[in-house]
From TrEMBL:
Active site: 75, 94
Descriptive protein name: Saccharopine dehydrogenase [NAD(+), L-lysine-forming]
Role summary: Catalyzes the NAD(+)-dependent cleavage of saccharopine to L-lysine and 2-oxoglutarate, the final step in the alpha-aminoadipate (AAA) pathway for lysin biosynthesis.
Species for this entry: Actinomortierella ambigua
Domain Alanine dehydrogenase/pyridine nucleotide transhydrogenase N-terminal: 5-140
Amino acid sequence: MVYLWLRAETKPMEHRAALTPSTCKTLLDRGFKITVERSPERIFDDEEYAKVGCHMVPIGEWRKAPRNAYIVGLKELPEGETDPLEHTHIFFAHCFKNQGGWTDILGRFDAGKGTILDLEFLNDDQGRRVAAFGYHAGFAGAAIGVDNWCHQKLNPGQPLPGYKPFPNEGQLISYIKERLGRAVALNGGELPEVMVMGALGRCGRGATDLARAVGIPEEKIISWDLNETKAGGPFPRILQAEIFVNCIYLNQPIPPFFTKEMLDGERKLSAIVDVSCDTTNPHNPIPVYSINTTFESPVVAVPSKNPLPLDVCSIDHLPTLLPRESSEAFSRDLLPTIINLEKRHESAVWNRAEALFHQKVQAMRDLAI
Ligand SMILES: NC(=O)c1ccc[n+]([C@@H]2O[C@H](COP(=O)([O-])OP(=O)(O)OC[C@H]3O[C@@H](n4cnc5c(N)ncnc54)[C@H](O)[C@@H]3O)[C@@H](O)[C@H]2O)c1
């Protein structure tokens, strides 16, 4: 029997969950045992988990969980702790790419003989992620782009206020539609054009779906992917769209999509959302800003000689805007792989994840010598 223990997230503003009440129900029906830590932050009420048959416990109890329980979460473990970790944890550990503090966290697992099966590195035989949050990142990012354009019309000169997560997708769409209606009226009845770069990917599909959902007509949704950019940038066409949503997966150096100087000239572009967020990458194809923005302060202004405003949104955890739907989609995609925990050592996905963990622990040990 597989035993899953859903821990409560402790990162501020994190309302998402790796396992939702509906995926828990499917797993319980298959004979899994599931314990869920109560959480006031999670978008799903504790009662929703209790109702489907999960065993409920207080926050942080995972430290005392039976050794055979898989501790499931999304974000990092609480900061500042140093004790050895003995369980197998399934989460986004953010320590396999030498991120800040990577040796500390791997050292805790090494000392406790625990294991990380990192959600970011659960890949199928084709190397594709089995579950990712991309779709809702694009969806939320495009929503902020359209809303920012509306804000520029409705409240000229004022910075875009912060966002709180929306209870569901329907409420986000209604909110944007209402704002768009009023902004378009001030724009002579003209809807803005939304250009999505990397439109064929997960984030790109989310961004185009949002544009459609709020009523942008097909002819005003400009979808570009590798085929349209193969000649190499910069691309003056981007400056002709009011809203630009960058959703590419940058895996090699490419010329910039546009330059700072180009922004001084003629343009309609006034709202950029960099979903890809390659902010500090030397090959960031949008080299006109240098910080990651936040839900509290969603955009940064780009100075230009053209008086039309220009803002960039570069939030790197966009799916948090829609915790319910993004969790449901992620958890649904993850479900078949979770079910394969029943025969984990026959599963290539889990075996690769475990091998990667051991490789990273070895790299950490080598560093210490
Ligand atoms: N900001 C956030 O909250 C957030 C959340 C999730 C993912 N992301 C990031 O978004 C990016 C995209 O993720 P994804 O899951 O959608 O990736 P993906 O691989 O599904 O899609 C990327 C798309 O970009 C296209 N592409 C790559 N290079 C291009 C180029 N030069 N010109 C045009 N198109 C190009 C690809 O063909 C593909 O269709 C990643 O960098 C990911 O880390 C950000």
